[in-house]
């Protein structure tokens, strides 16, 4: 887990406007994420989870903890001729599609399963079908 106080947010959102946050934390594991929420000095602060920061615009400083999601991992299982991908929330969508193509999963047949999607802090679930 990497922690920066009074951190610059410019590299973490697509609009690239200079703004700061009280605390910036990069989490690389579920344990890191739990530690952020249990850290005594941050309990009362608002938390904001970011991935790549697309569609995010900071126009004022964020007086809280910005959590950069770096959780990575792809697990594949198969049931009844369908492949189920359990994808960690820090995975990049274009890279995931490329990975699927490289592993012979039909990229044109990948869609998010709305019944299995979780909040950004949780892994994404995708269904791949033939």
TrEMBL record:
Known EC number: 1.3.1.98
GO BP annotation list: cell wall organization
InterPro entries found in the cross-reference section: FAD-bd_PCMH-like_sf, FAD-bd_PCMH_sub1, MurB, Oxid_FAD_bind_N
GO molecular function: flavin adenine dinucleotide binding; UDP-N-acetylmuramate dehydrogenase activity
Enzyme class: oxidoreductase
Span of domain FAD linked oxidase N-terminal: 23-107
Oxidoreductase listed as a keyword: yes
This protein's UniProt keywords: FAD, Flavoprotein, Oxidoreductase
This protein's GO CC annotations: cytosol
UniProt keyword Cell inner membrane, yes or no: no
SUPFAM superfamilies with a match to the protein in the record: FAD-binding/transporter-associated domain-like (SSF56176)
Pfam families: FAD_binding_4 (PF01565)
Protein name: UDP-N-acetylenolpyruvoylglucosamine reductase
